[in-house]
Write a structure and sequence with these properties.
Elements (H helix, E strand, L loop, with lengths): L12 E7 L11 E7 L3 H10 L6 E4 L5 E3 L4 E7 L7 E5 L2 E5 L4 H10 L2 E2 L11 H6 L3 E2 L2 E2 L4 E7 L5 E5 L17 E8 L1 E2 L2 H18 L5 E2 L12 H7 L6 E2 L2 E3 L7 E3 L5 H19 L8 E3 L3
Parallel strand pairs: 2-5, 3-5, 4-19
Antiparallel strand pairs: 1-2, 6-7, 7-13, 8-14, 9-10, 11-12, 11-13, 15-18, 16-17, 17-18
Helix pairs in contact: 2-4
Length: about 300
């Protein structure tokens, strides 16, 4: 185990050998060597400043788009709690959002303040930190369309503010460095009527409920959509709907979702994903790329 001694006493919670399965949507996987839940930004900065530079650091949000491998995650997993979940209006069209705030909270706060254009965040099952890092998107919109800038604590413990132009956004990707943690972000929308904003959020919510296995142990969209194609259609055409491996299954409801039917290991889930990728490549010649993060040791 990594010995953590060369840093100031933390004010948050530091847990060794912390089970991660309860914290992720798939409900599978191993432990974090250390799980750190900082009390505030200064606590996070102090911790990272004192942490040996060779100790890996990974942020964990709601655990909705991640496979934690069964061997667990070495180093430190950082989870931002309630202190990082505040959302406040800056002006008529801008919100200041903590890195631990959920998409639902951000979109609801925007509605309450008559800010339109952020409704799609209602459909992203994660936190601000995660979808800023991954340029999360849905229903024709992406984070890059609304982000002004973000506050990031980098691996050295320094905090920097990065404008959207410096994040190198592409489809479901940013150039944020490994070990850096998004602690806040500013989103800009446009003026709107709360009733109309709520109606759009309801439409998005109903569409998700109708098409996605939201009540299963899942990880959201498994594969990125290739240029000019939809991942779910490619998976379906390759005959993978309902395909199983161990306790893992390709969803019957939405073929770009993998589900844990009960006692799947993370190895089951990842191996099923690789099986799907092979079948799609054989059937269509297209090589699907993972959208779900796979972390830790097998």
């Amino acid at each position: 185990m990594t010995t953590l001694t060369a840093f100031p006493t933390v004010r948050g919670k530091l847990t060794p050998n912390a089970p991660l399965a309860p914290l992720v949507w798939f409900k599978s996987g191993g432990t974090a060597e250390w799980l750190f839940e900082p009390r505030d930004v200064a606590d996070l900065q102090d911790f990272l400043t004192g942490l040996a530079p060779d100790v890996p650091v990974m942020a964990l949000g709601l655990g909705s788009n991640i496979i934690v491998r069964d061997g667990g995650v070495p180093g430190v997993v950082v989870r931002l709690g309630k202190a990082f979940a505040k959302v406040e209006r800056v002006d008529e069209v801008t919100l200041d959002c903590g890195g631990g705030a959920s998409g639902i909270l951000v979109s609801s706060t925007a509605r309450d303040n008559g800010i339109a254009g952020l409704e799609f965040l209602r459909s992203i099952p994660g936190t601000v930190g995660g979808f800023v890092r991954m340029n999360g998107g849905a229903y024709g919109r992406e984070v890059k369309d609304i982000l002004i800038d973000c506050d990031v604590v980098i691996r050295s413990g320094e905090i920097v503010t990065l404008p959207v132009s410096e994040l190198g956004y592409t489809y479901r990707h940013s150039e944020l460095s490994d070990g850096s943690i998004v602690v806040a972000a500013r989103f800009r929308g446009h003026p709107g009527e709360p009733a109309a904003i709520q109606a759009e959020m309801d439409r998005i919510s109903a569409a998700r409920e109708a098409s996605q296995p939201l009540r299963s142990k899942t990880g959201g969209s498994t594969f990125k959509n290739p240029d000019g194609a939809k991942a779910w259609e490619l998976v379906d055409k390759a005959g993978c709907r309902g395909l199983t491996l161990g306790g893992a299954q390709v969803s019957e409801k939405h073929t770009n979702f993998l589900i844990n039917t009960g006692e799947a290991t993370s190895a089951d889930i990842e191996a099923l994903g690789e099986m799907v990728r092979r079948r799609v490549k054989e059937q269509s010649g297209i090589e699907l790329q993972w959208e779900i993060q796979r972390v830790g040791k097998a």
